Amino acid sequence: MPEQLPKGMKCAECSEVYPISLTNYSSCHFAPLQVVYNPPGNLRSRIENGPNNLFRYRDLLPNSGNPDYDVGMTPLVRTDELADALGFERGKLYLKFDEGYVSGTFKDRGVAVVAELVDEANSKGADYRALGGTSTGNLLKAIAASAQRNGLPSIVVVHQSANPKLIEDAVSLGSYVLRVNAHYSKADSLMKIIISNHPEITSRMATVNMESRPVYGEGSKTIGFEIIEQMGWNAPANIVHPAAAGLSSSRIYE
């Protein structure tokens, strides 16, 4: 029986498990990959003794290290006055201020996971030279900020109505921003066409929310981990989450 790895990426078609990588599909069936884990028995103590950032949950993330990264562990605040106004019982309503230290958005979480995996891959002989992706706005700045932090350039494709201030901020962080004169789905399709026609790009640039999507999504679930830990390891009865963040909502639910 093969040794069970502490973490890996499972093919949705046949359940074959691959090593962690910045890849979207399996090579056996070209099916979507999902990150799977085999955490140690002393998981809680390992988390509580981990760094004061999202990588304290490294046993439940695709990363292997404990990078010093100012992302995660954002405040959870009890709001009795708001509970009174909304008719809730006092002590039952909390707000999670997940503004992000790097870009001011929770998108920092997923990008940090990808950026650190790029560093890990390069330390093992890979040759990633940039971060990339498509964005409606917030992800743009998160990619630019994490890329600069890790000494990499970034290339992001945005749609015609993307926030000019976010574009300006990303450019000031060294990002190359390509604005498409169309809506977001066209910008997304353009990046997909570039990748499919030039596969060599994926070995040089980690596209955060495309080829690297399975591992990018793992960063979002740490919001849920933090809420439970900050509430004394008790899961709340309900979490209200912004509907626009579809990927984040689904990962928190998991």
Structure characteristics:
9 helices; three-stranded antiparallel sheet; alpha/beta; single chain; globular; four-stranded parallel sheet; 254 residues
What is the number of strand segments? Answer: 9
Q: Would you tell me the overall average pLDDT?
A: 91
Largest sheet: 4 strands, parallel
Low-confidence runs: none
Into which percent range does the helicity of residues fall?
25-40%
Q: What best-fitting shape do the alpha-carbon axes yield?
A: globular
Q: What oligomeric state do these chains adopt?
A: single chain
Strand content: 5-15%
The helix/strand order is EEEHEHEHEHEHEHEHHH
Radius of gyration: 19 Å
**Class derived from helix and strand content:** alpha/beta
**How many DSSP H or I helices?**
9
Distance between the termini: 29 Å
| Sheet with most strands: strand arrangement | 8-7-6-9
Could you explain how this protein is built, in words?
The protein has helices spanning 43-48, 80-86, 107-123, 138-149, 164-172, 184-197, 213-216, 222-230, 246-253; strands at 7-11, 17-18, 33-37, 76-78, 94-96, 130-135, 154-158, 175-179, 205-207. By secondary structure, it is α/β, with parallel strands linked by helices. The strands form three sheets. The chain has a four-stranded parallel beta sheet, with helices on both faces. It has a three-stranded antiparallel beta sheet with strand order 2-1-3, with no helix packed on it. A two-stranded antiparallel ribbon has the order 4-5. The two termini are 29 Å apart.
